User: Fold Helicase c2 from Vulcanisaeta distributa.
Amino acid sequence: MDIADYVYSMLREKDVILLNAYPGFGKSRIAVTIAKRWINDGGQALIITRSRAEALQLCEFTRQVGIRDRVSLFLGRESMCPFNARNSKQCLLYRLSGKCRVRKTEVSSSVMTCNSLDLFNDGLCPYEVNEALAYQLPIVISTHAYLSSPELYGKLMNIINTWNKPLVIIDEFHNVAAGLEESVSISIDELRQWASHGNDIANKLLDRVGNYTPQREVVVLRRFDIDDLLKGSELINDKVIEILTHFGNDLCAFTYDGKLVRLRCLSLKPIHDLIMRSQRALFLTASIGRRFSYIMSIYSKPSYYVAVDSLPREYRENLSVLSIVDVEFTHRNRLLREYLDIVNRSIKVFIESSPPTGGLAIFFPSIEYLDSYVNQYAPPVWGVPTFVLRNSSEAVNAIGTFKESARVTKSLVITYAQNPIGEGVNFLEQELVGVMIIGFPLPQYSQWGFLKSHYYKRLGINGFTTTYLFPAISTTTQIIGRLLRDLDRHKKVAVLLDGRFYRYRRYMPKWLMSRMRPMKLLQFLKASLWR
Ligand code: SF4
Assistant:
């Protein structure tokens, strides 16, 4: 039975299904196929994916299966507006100044395009058209950002509340599975103003941060009453109130890093409410292996786990995952000269033994670590075009140039593990033939992480595994997943430079664990990696 048929048949019996399949398996197409069948059976479907680019790809798939005219692309004003108007005020300014000359507000025929500019060129506002259609059409495509914003989430819930048979599909679910996190920074001056208006919590915070410069971000206030925070609240940043009202205060804390106070919150509520309101829920991911499927127990309905665990044979033959077992890059040792040298020698071997054409990507666990390496060994002298990407906005522009370069010659990108190119960007043919991850990408230990870990424990699941191991394994899976395109035609290699990758291999999805080959550093430095 085809996997979409199977999942659809299971949706008749199970309220919540989690489908875990390797990157590139075609989960987004499955989402669209299932949404199509669901609406043909009289239902309505909300598909939420990670980013605008992925939402546009879903839209293309709906065109291909002939249901584009039944879909609204509900992506927020900034994403849809050709001038990137952030809100209605900015939109109004653009209209008054004549910069935007939108005339019509209603669409006379069905929308068949996924390009918002086509609507704009037709005299329509792409944002307003899609927002209006979201209340009329049976499929709405949106992004994870809608889950974190009280205003946007409220709009989604309003739409679902008018549906009689809602199905919610969340793609790239690993990004939100363990709850949504949000934070807002508050300056000391702002705190002083709140305090001068009689806000006791601001007074308490000022007391705790006064003359205190912590080494790293610490929790300064954990338990507080929302009513106390709202006392004398005229001056309080709207974002603070928004976070508390949207996220609740199940897990919220004020932290301080020596400069700014931050309100941090973690909440399961938006996902929980979506599940409860929908008749069925389908979650798609590549990073929630069977060992992490316990995370689903934090939501109130039981879920059914479906896994596609093995790669096609030709893919298996062309993918090597070399796991170096006798070195670890910890916070204590990784900046030592000796360890930076190991990194440098390993990168050199990786580049030299790769084919003459093709892209290579090196991922450091953090921007700070990347900077320490690049500063010490700058300028990179490997004799290949090299792109160093420190922030996500650079990635959007640089990635096209990198791909172009990789199609004709050996090219290198150096970045950090959470950069958007590590997830969601598709590299075809030889655009990426190798990745190397330096250091096991555990989130940095922090007091906030410690609180999260306790919170999960109180919910009955493993705190350390959920707070630290799950994001590290998820990041690793996504990065290696960038190699899983056109693997039947090209040999591709992943190098995992840290013993913990192999040690925690049982948490990796099966397709990845089965490809991991342990290797000592010395053996690796002499190996022909692409043979
Ligand atoms: S009317 Fe639409 S296209 Fe024009 S500025 Fe506003 S949001 Fe942008």
Observations:
- Residues 463-481 form the longest helix (19 residues).
- The chain has three domains: 3-178+269-308, 182-267, 313-526.
- Residues 182-267 form one domain.
- Residues 77, 81-83, 85, 91, 94-95, 100, 102, 120, 125, 127-128 surround iron/sulfur cluster (CB under 6 Å).
